[in-house]
């Protein structure tokens, strides 16, 4: 969903605890696997049991084959962290209890209908995630794509390597990846609280002078991260003339 925002770790924990109902295990672990590997919702729903469960254990590297990747782009392998592996283990236990076996050819995220032969639809995925976001008390624009954006944002904050994020997401262009990486919501929330007139006096805030004191390289990285055309900004800055102080006659009119 265009314009959806990412979730931070605290929000992810809240959502993971908010699923209820008969298919809560499936729905919770669709969410947890999504935020752990950064797949598109269509890629997650195309997974088979055998894609994630091999040699009686969860895979540590999940392969998204070209046949299920959007636009037929190249296949890619993504590391599966402990959250993702725990999600897979829970799903396999759920399959065993519900169907009595672990069929490698069965859709990992089965539909409520079809006795395990059909995968759930994208609409169904949206419909099970939306109430969990609401029950967790989250606001802002959230949807199935928030899972992928949450992975991208957190991976970038851990690695500071936009090209690694590009490869894990399967983007053809790093420009597309840049659009995924918004501001750090946790950091913005903290700064916003610090701006409040009710904030404690000892809360530190960033001022204009502290930004001006930052190294040029840091500023360029931040501008690139937020999608600015840095070359154009620099060209504009060089072409502008410095402001001249007002003459005495002009100044006297405002005294």
Protein topology:
Blueprint: H1 9-16, H2 24-37, H3 41-45, H4 49-52, E1 53-54, E2 57-58, E3 61-64, E4 76-79, H5 82-99, H6 122-135, H7 145-159, H8 162-169, H9 174-180, H10 185-195, H11 208-213, H12 216-225, H13 230-239, H14 248-252
Antiparallel strand pairs: 1-2, 3-4
Helix pairs in contact: 2-5, 2-7, 7-8, 8-9
Features:
disordered C terminus; globular; 53% helix; mainly alpha; 5% strand; 4 strands; two-stranded antiparallel ribbon; 255 residues; hpI Integrase, Chain A
What this model shows, in words?
This protein is mainly alpha-helical and 255 residues long. It folds into 2 domains: 9-150, Intergrase catalytic core (hpI Integrase, Chain A); 168-239, no CATH class. It has 14 helices and 4 strands. It has helices at 9-16, 24-37, 41-45, 49-52, 82-99, 122-135, 145-159, 162-169, 174-180, 185-195, 208-213, 216-225, 230-239, 248-252; strands at residues 53-54, 57-58, 61-64, 76-79. A hairpin with a 2-residue loop joins β1 and β2.
């Amino acid at each position: 969903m265009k314009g959806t925002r990412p979730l931070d770790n605290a929000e992810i924990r809240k959502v993971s605890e908010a699923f209820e109902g008969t298919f809560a295990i499936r729905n919770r672990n669709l969410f947890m696997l999504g935020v752990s590997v950064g797949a598109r919702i269509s890629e997650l729903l195309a997974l088979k049991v055998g894609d994630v469960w091999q040699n009686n254990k969860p895979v540590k590297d999940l392969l998204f084959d070209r046949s299920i990747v959007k636009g037929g782009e190249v296949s890619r392998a993504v590391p599966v962290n402990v959250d993702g592996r725990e999600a897979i283990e829970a799903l396999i236990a759920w399959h065993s209890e519900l169907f009595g076996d672990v069929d490698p050819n069965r859709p990992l995220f089965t539909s409520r209908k079809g006795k395990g032969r059909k995968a759930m639809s994208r609409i169904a995925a949206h419909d099970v995630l939306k109430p969990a976001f609401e029950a967790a008390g989250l606001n802002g624009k959230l949807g199935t794509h928030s899972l992928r954006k949450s992975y991208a944002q957190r991976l970038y904050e851990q690695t500071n390597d936009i090209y690694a994020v590009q490869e894990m997401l399967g983007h053809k262009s790093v420009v597309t990846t840049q659009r995924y990486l918004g501001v750090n919501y946790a950091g913005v929330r903290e700064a916003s609280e610090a701006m409040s007139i009710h904030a404690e006096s000892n809360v530190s805030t960033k001022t204009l002078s502290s930004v001006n004191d930052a190294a040029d390289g840091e500023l360029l990285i931040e501008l690139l991260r937020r999608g600015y055309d840095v070359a154009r900004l620099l060209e504009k800055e060089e072409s502008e003339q410095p402001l001249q102080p007002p003459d005495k006659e002009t100044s006297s009119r405002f005294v």
